[in-house]
Amino acid sequence: NGLMLFLPLYLVNELKAAPMLVGVAMTGIQAGAIVSGPLAGAMSDRLGRKPVVLTCLVATSIMIAFMNTVSDVEPFVAAACLLGFALFAVRPVIHGWALDLASERMSGSVISLLFGTQSAFTMLVPLVGGLIADQWGLAATFLLLTVTVMIAAGMALLVPNAGRDARAPA
User: Residues 6 or more apart from 99 whose CB is under 8 A from it?
Assistant: First the structure.
């Protein structure tokens, strides 16, 4: 969610992108989601949730870090499209993984906790990211987002395969 806020600001303020290219970048992120969601779901059913989540989170952090080094608008927009592919593929797999780990009686509570936690972090990102951008620039905000995704990958690495996902390879 931080990317959806700070990416247009970065494109306009740092790369001097025209409004049309900002629109293309934001559309590209969503288009990546349309394509990658079903693919990630199918892969997670075959390989297990953990490998797909880890792959998507690592790919997302690499793409955000790479985008922070790009100084031309067109490659940045292309990278944003690829970023959407990895970033949005992970969300439904995380939901599936959470449901796999939860008992059937707790599935509603687990999803509520997942969405609540996401909302709490979504609430903090504009505040913290804005403070960082004001102090050190928008590029530093992208570094914050990269580190945040890498921390999420590290946390996912620590989650054991359990429940229905335990049958899939780790």
Answer: 107, 110, 111
Q: Under a CB-based contact definition with an 8 Å cutoff, are residues 79 and 70 in contact?
A: yes
d(CA 29, CA 80): 6
Q: How far apart are CA 12 and CA 21, in angstroms?
A: 9
Q: 105, 58, 61, 56: which is closest to 85 by C-alpha?
A: 56
DSSP 55-93: HHHHHHHHHHHHHTT--SHHHHHHHHHHHHHHHHHHHHH
For residue 129, the model assigns a pLDDT of: 93
Which residues lie closer than 8 Å to 164 by C-beta, 6 or more apart? Answer: 100
pTM of the model: 0.82
The 10s digit of each residue's pLDDT in 65-120 is 888 888 888 888 888 888 888 888 888 898 888 888 888 888 889 889 988 988 89
Amino acid sitting at position 147: V
Tokens of 5: 């806020």
